[in-house]
Amino acid sequence: MTKSLLFAAALAAGSLYASSAPASEWGCQVLLCVSGNWQATQSCHPPMYRLIAAMKAPGFSWPTCPDANSSAARREVYDACPEGWSVGYSDVGHDGNRSVPNKCEKRQNLCFDHRNDNKPTFNVNRRDGDSCEKTISMSRPVRSKPWYIEYTDAKGLRQKAWFNLNI
Asked: CA nearest 140: which of 99, 83, 111, 102?
């Protein structure tokens, strides 16, 4: 947790114990709590439990912290694919739209010639008409902290605080 975030959020948050705090104060409390380990911080339980309960209500709007120019929370379930891999999709929906981007995939040349002392070498003179290029895939890594809030720190730099809402 950065000192600049603590400074900006503490400046705006006021008391963490106020149960009827205005929305902007509550948003600052939430920002301060999600930037650290809110589950292990007792003073973060009231504003975070209030948030989790409010998320179930119709018309819920994420509380923001104007003093830190925070965004509403966003969710990215999947982490980036490893280097050399691109995002892939497990299915195509019935309307032709892609489903969830839950795979990582890459093209791989599978044509090998094993005649050279059992050392695989690429065989570029294939005559069977089959392509040597195949797409291989793997499950995309899942984030342990899928939620994030963007905010401006005390130095004026845009940051992301990643968190989860597991109780």
From this structure: 102
**Which contacts of 46-55 are long-range, i.e. CB under 8 A and separated by 24 or more positions?**
46/16, 46/17, 46/19, 47/16, 47/21, 48/165, 49/167, 50/19, 50/26, 51/26, 51/165, 52/165, 52/167, 55/165
Give the tokens for residue 132: 């040597």
Say what the pTM is: 0.66
Which pLDDT tens digit goes with each residue over 113-165?
555 555 555 555 555 555 677 888 899 999 999 999 999 999 999 999 999 99
Length of the chain: 167
| H-helix segments, 59-156 | none
- CA 146 – CA 163 distance, rounded (Å): 6
The Cα–Cα gap between 53 and 138 comes to 36
List the chain domain ranges: 3-77+144-163, 86-139
Give the whole-angstrom CA distance, residue 38 versus residue 42.
Answer: 8
Query: 3-state DSSP call for residue 24?
Result: helix
If we measure between CA atoms, which residue out of 60, 56, 50 comes closest to residue 20? 50
